[in-house]
Amino acid sequence: MTRPATLNVGAARIQPSAVIEVLKPITWFPPMWAFACGAVSSGVPFAENVLLILAGVVLAGPLLCGASQVMNDWYDRHVDAINEPNRPIPSGRLPGNTGFYLAIFWTALSLVLAWLLGPWVFAGAAVGMVLSWAYSAPPLRLKRNGWFGNSAVAISYEGLAWFTGAAVLLGAFPDWKIILLAGLFSFGAHGIMTLNDFKALEGDRQLGVRSLPVQLGPARAAWVACVMMLLPQLVVLTLLVQWGTDLEAYLLAGVIAAQGFLMIRLMRDPKGLAPWYNATGVTLFVSGMMISAFAVRGLPGIAG
Prior knowledge:
The protein has 14 helices and two strands. The protein has helices spanning 16-23, 29-41, 50-75, 77-83, 88-91, 98-116, 119-136, 146-170, 176-196, 201-207, 212-216, 218-242, 246-266, 270-297; strands spanning 7-9, 12-14. Strands 1-2 form a two-stranded antiparallel sheet. The longest helix is centred in the C-terminal third of the chain and has 28 residues, at 270-297.
């Protein structure tokens, strides 16, 4: 049997696979998708900006999101040592303070690339990094409260990623319509984060984490999540109608209606059906994001 490759750090040995595991590639999709929505909404042609787009995708996913995942695992290491001891940091596969140093390095690398992509991209990335550290690290540790923690994640993963996608291609501060869409879908993403908290309901209760399912109970938390997802989409639908983007408005209306039907089923068993809704309703939600991005890209003044 071949032994896994390792890196020497003093007397400790680090498995590269542990570094990849702590960066959590599966979590990169939401910010990369939001970045793509921002890039589409900018109205700038993709053909001559492929390298710029690729750099932005790397920034949104592997770097910014990856950094947030490492720092979250580092500050959760004591809890993980009890509940999930096989994770890279509590298991010793990332020994000593390696997790902390990796979080610092990945944060710095993210900000360097963001700076190279332009001042507005750097500004968006910097705000996202501040929110990420505030989410995980004391003394704020926003993740202890579902209202604050979910807001930080939603803004970072959706709104700021969308803003960054537009700013990368425009090379300037995006049009207010783009900012408005990014903000509205960030609001909706708070509901997605709440439904995601259902999987850790019992653990959060035991550890004193005040997620919305813990604070409100499963039924009320599900209602809050559904309202927070639907309301901003209805506002976006109204805007698309006002802006005269009829085709996209019809498509978005269909996506919203489908989510409504799925939410009716979700409310029958919020705790048990939350994973099912995350695989179905959330897919419709993010589809609506891209539909809206295509709607705004053709409006006057978007691409300067």
